[in-house]
Amino acid sequence: MMRRRTLGKAGCSLLMVVLTTLTVALSGCSSDKAGDSAKPGSGEGAATETVESQTETASADVTDDLSKIIVGIPQDIDGLDPHNSTGAGTREVFYNIFEGLVKADSNGNLNPAVASDYTISDDSKVYSFTLRDGIKFHDGSLVTVEDIKYSLERNMGVDGGEPLIRAYGQIESVNIVDDKHVDVVLKDADSDFLTQLTVAIIPAANEHPETTPIGTGPYMYVSNSPQENFIVTRFDDYWGDKAYIKDVVFKIEANMDAIVLDLEGGSIDMMARVTPTQVAQLSDKFQVYEGTMNLVQALYLNNDFEPFKDVRVRQALCYAVDPQTIMDFVSDGAGTEVGSAMFPAFSKYYMPELNDTYNHDTDKAKELLTEAGYPNGFEFTITVPSNYGQHVDTAQVISEELKEIGVTANIQEIEWNSWVSDVYSGRQYEATVVGIDASTLSASALLSRYVSDNGKNFVNFKSEAYDTAYANAQSATDDSVKTKFYKECETILSQEAASVYIQDLPEFVVLNKKFTGYVFYPLYVQDIAKIKPAQ
Fold it and tell me: What is the pTM of this model?
């Protein structure tokens, strides 16, 4: 049964406070905001210069040339090597450059890409692939089975390092059968392993993939200027349908207050994940596409931080935070509530019943805090990437909600690169608000990060019951059994309150009407090859 909520006096008070806060956060360009997104040590003067240079660039970039599109992205890519890049924002760009043996389409299907076809053995231990005839890398060389073997083994960590992809630790061997066929042999049966084979196939002869990215996709790398742009051009020898638009500039739009100005001024033609407030400010020369982000936005808690080591404290925060209130304030009520680490696009695994594990109950939250030894609450810091307005706004609402149970949540905004190094990699944080997406069309892409010894387990969640359920899911050959254990994992995450799960955010994509053809995917990608001139 779905819960009904009323604001009441406390809620109305919260409404006024948050609306006032969000009005300040979302209106206009301020020197404070520019300073937040400036490089450390740059000072207020540098921040002012940044705003002025953006205005000049806006004029310089305005063009009616429909052979070129400028796409705004909120953060710089985190490296040129597709095997060592982790950011979702990087993957959405790299989708246009790199391809795996198979590739996801907009309907969630895995279609042959570098491979022309494949077979899976009855025991789900041998995946056999046929190399596509005549497929070329961006440097003009033909793709070979040696390139496939090299790319997969590189992710397996055969050089003595840890596997770059956890699931690749399950590969026994990659065997070249002949110059057209490769077998991927697993240690144990896994009927879901095809979803892991979207990893980029790159040339074995390329000794410096970290500086010279070469793939097989519809676009090829041209250049990148850190914190400014990333440029690609159409690959005319692409094996599949050619891209409509020749040149693409991915322009870094780290200052969310400048997005509307840059769209209207013509320095960008497209921007994904804009806020409803920004949409309302745009003129009618833009088409707004509405979908979902396909991610799990949550207040992610560092389970090694003293208050959050106690499950009762984590559960108290779950009772205190109301997802619907957040959606009402941040996205005009749009979005889908989630009660665990799974979003609705993965319909086979998504469990809407977990949304009711914690009905909004401040009295219950206070009771749990008292039991845990915090009758007067406590104080902690939510560290948020400043270039993602929805996450910043969500943190502000959460901070107001937690005041009702005596908990003080301070908000610290930091640049994206600092978030990656300090929070995600360094785990030097107490709590954060971000969205976690899936890198593949597999439940494991979302759930594997909670296994105790997983290097991506940045929330430091540890549960023997969870580790067992996940291992059972991985070893199951029957899909219904595998799904059952994945759902057990989700239930454990909810009951043990690994974090405060909130929602799958709505996604608003703005595209200048000079162009058309934007398509949503169930993964975090931007398929620029589908976009074409409207005339």
Answer: 0.77
